[in-house]
Amino acid sequence: MRPLRYSINVTLDGCCHHEAGLPPDEESMRYWTAEMERADALLFGRVTYKMMESAWRKPATGTWPDWMDEWQIPFAETIDRAKKYVVSSTLSGVDWNADLVRGDLEQAVQRLKQESGEGLWVGGVTLPLALADLGLIDEYEFLVQPVLAGHGPTLLAGLRERIQLELVDRHEFRSGAVAQRYRPTRVTA
């Protein structure tokens, strides 16, 4: 059974808007590239899929855009070629090496987790909240940015029940950001 990993950038005050933290730098992009490479497939909700596709899909010309720095290309290539699953009840279809996931979310994700492999990666805000509420996330990774945003969506806002986590890894960046990886502790009755 492959684990489902949730990874996201978050500010010190819990904001998880994609533009609230520090701009990506070479070190953080290398880190995120390695994280994407650990996954057999990416799981997105509609909004995250569209956002990632607009930023990281290789143009039809076959050439990456001029705005992209050389150190961003390995991340772009990794996410561009990755297998993707998109959870949406409103999209009629997807491409970009993606399959549409419909129906019962818990059953669909359980099926994906049952497949052999190294793991699934999920990002975003809304879908991970639903997956956390269902107890389907096996690992949480927060890249905590040394920023106080003071606004925006907050991490897992609306979670139905408290989830106790155990720290399993930590990595400090030169920027002051800290990646913290946690696993839920399993409470036995």
From TrEMBL:
Coiled coil, from the record: none
Biological process (GO), any one: riboflavin biosynthetic process
Gene Ontology MF terms: 5-amino-6-(5-phosphoribosylamino)uracil reductase activity
InterPro entries: DHFR-like_dom_sf (IPR024072), RibDG_C (IPR002734), Riboflavin_Biosynth_HTPR (IPR050765)
Pfam families, per the entry: RibD_C
Matches recorded under SUPFAM superfamilies: Dihydrofolate reductase-like (SSF53597)
Sequence ranges assigned to domain Bacterial bifunctional deaminase-reductase C-terminal in this UniProt record: 6-176
PANTHER family to which the protein is assigned, alphabetical: BIFUNCTIONAL DEAMINASE-REDUCTASE DOMAIN PROTEIN (PTHR38011:SF2), DIHYDROFOLATE REDUCTASE FAMILY PROTEIN (AFU_ORTHOLOGUE AFUA_8G06820) (PTHR38011)
Protein name: Deaminase/reductase
Source species: Streptomyces variegatus
